Backbone:
């Protein structure tokens, strides 16, 4: 049996995981030998790419330390940036890495992904995945993971704060005090008890918000394109118009889709109650902001809280939220009772730490074990771990176009070995096969890899040992 060092040296090239000249380590790290054991598989053999020290991960947008710790424990190389990168720099950086971690600002377009020659996985350290061309990624054999609900509570709590702040004009009173103005008023300031909250999109965030709002005495109605079970005393309404005509506060919690672009625009504001309030902590394209400005100037809408914008700055800094970025910015800023926040709905210590662990673990499991459970763009496949005493077993990960005849070809290549287990799944045009094959001599691996790479409908091949 060869040593791990020999394995690393022989097969790095074949595995396409180590063509970088500045890898910090070319040998299996300490973690390769001992550390990464998923909790569900404590008695199973640890599978790894041959040399975890060669795995390069690019983390943008201040991804949480919990994720960095997970990657460091694996021995991966981590390059970390607090902000997102301009497209040209992103294209340069992505050429070399096996995994990238982003939040909501980095746009991974088809153009950017075309340069990602080594990329196997993308981690969105957030809920939304609209910033990634999911189809282009899948077609290139790149799995995308997100964190579906780790920041939902944080967003819901922010919205609760905004409902009360808008009802009491807290933003304006606070700004006035900061400039020395004492303005003790009660006109058009309201309790929220007994008022109606209309939630558009009753998913993870909308439903969480519903529970919190009811606990403060609000009536909750919601509109969703799907029939969803009501929590508490909330009620689903049949149409958006019905929601708009009944709600005192309207809060948007839908994903960015073609269907949700300008979901609230001039006709919808006109359909709302006089003096009602608008909240958007979903995506910047969901509310037509120039139309909102007009509705507020006309006195139809009494206040608004916005956390998201069609164009958002790539980094923190002064004078970035300007007309250069969004042509209506100064108009919006000049209005009273408008609360503007810099996309911080999910920005709490609790949420970021949980997201770091969740997405960091998903990426590690995909890199080290091939498990795509939870991927948002990709066939979900997982195999149970290998027994600790299983030697000479190789895990084949084979991503291919979803066309007839591929399995026959692949199994023919694997046929000299015992297929211990095999699982394949497809999603749209892409299929993913995982197989554990035994009786593999170390000298066979390169040839197996090359044969699989030469198959006609292959998208990507990886072998884990
Ligand atoms: N401001 C922030 O920091 C954050 C913003 N978000 C945004 O919030 C969005 C919602 O998040 P979740 O509740 O976790 O998503 P979710 O997927 O759990 O729920 C979305 C709901 O919207 C519904 N929906 C889709 N299209 C609709 C339409 N045209 N009209 C009415 N309902 C529609 C869906 O059926 C679903 O029930 C995310 O997609 C993300 O863009 C998420 C987290 C943090
Ligand atoms: O925290 C972030 O950067 C993005 C939050 C968000 O919008 C999301 O989770 O979809």
Residues:
């Amino acid at each position: 049996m060869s040593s791990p060092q020999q394995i690393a040296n022989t097969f790095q090239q074949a595995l396409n995981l180590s063509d970088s000249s500045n890898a910090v380590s070319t040998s299996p790290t300490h973690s390769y030998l001992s550390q990464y054991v998923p909790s569900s598989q404590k008695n199973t053999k640890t599978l790894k790419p041959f040399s975890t020290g060669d795995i390069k991960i690019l983390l943008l947008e201040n991804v949480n330390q919990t994720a960095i710790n997970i990657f460091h424990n694996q021995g991966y190389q981590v390059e970390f940036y607090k902000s997102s990168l301009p497209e040209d720099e992103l294209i340069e950086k992505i050429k070399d890495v096996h995994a990238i971690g982003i939040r909501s600002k980095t746009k991974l377009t088809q153009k950017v992904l075309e340069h990602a020659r080594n990329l196997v996985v993308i981690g969105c350290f957030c809920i939304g995945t609209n910033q990634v061309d999911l189809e282009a990624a899948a077609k290139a054999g790149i799995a995308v993971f997100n964190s579906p609900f780790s920041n939902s509570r944080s967003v819901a709590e922010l919205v609760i704060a905004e409902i009360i702040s808008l009802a009491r004009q807290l933003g304006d009173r606070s700004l006035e005090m900061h400039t020395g103005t004492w303005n003790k008023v009660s006109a058009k300031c309201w309790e929220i008890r007994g008022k109606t909250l209309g939630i558009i999109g009753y998913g993870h965030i909308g439903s969480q918000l519903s529970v919190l709002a009811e606990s403060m005495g609000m009536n909750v109605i919601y509109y969703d394109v799907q029939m969803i079970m009501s929590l508490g005393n909330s009620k689903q309404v049949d149409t958006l118009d019905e929601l708009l005509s009944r709600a005192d506060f309207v809060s948007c919690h839908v994903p960015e889709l073609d269907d949700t672009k300008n979901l609230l625009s001039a006709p919808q504001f006109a359909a709302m109650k006089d003096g009602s309030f608008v909240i958007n902590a979903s995506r910047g394209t969901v509310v037509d902001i120039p139309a909102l400005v007009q509705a507020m100037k006309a006195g139809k809408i009494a206040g608004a809280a916005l956390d998201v914008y069609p164009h958002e700055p790539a980094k923190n800094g002064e004078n970035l939220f300007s007309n250069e970025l969004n042509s209506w910015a100064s108009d919006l800023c000049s209005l009273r009772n408008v609360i503007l926040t810099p996309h911080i709905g999910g920005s709490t210590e609790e949420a970021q730490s949980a997201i770091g662990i969740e997405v960091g673990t998903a990426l590690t499991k995909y890199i080290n074990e091939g498990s795509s459970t939870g991927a948002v763009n990709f066939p979900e496949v997982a195999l149970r771990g290998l027994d600790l005493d299983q030697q000479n077993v190789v895990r084949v990960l084979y991503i291919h176009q979803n066309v007839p005849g591929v399995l026959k070809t692949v199994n023919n290549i694997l046929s000299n070995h015992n297929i211990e287990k095999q699982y394949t799944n497809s999603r749209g045009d892409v299929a993913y096969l995982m197989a554990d094959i035994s009786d593999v001599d170390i000298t066979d691996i390169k040839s197996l890899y090359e044969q699989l790479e030469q198959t006609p409908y292959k998208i990507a091949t990886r072998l884990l040992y």
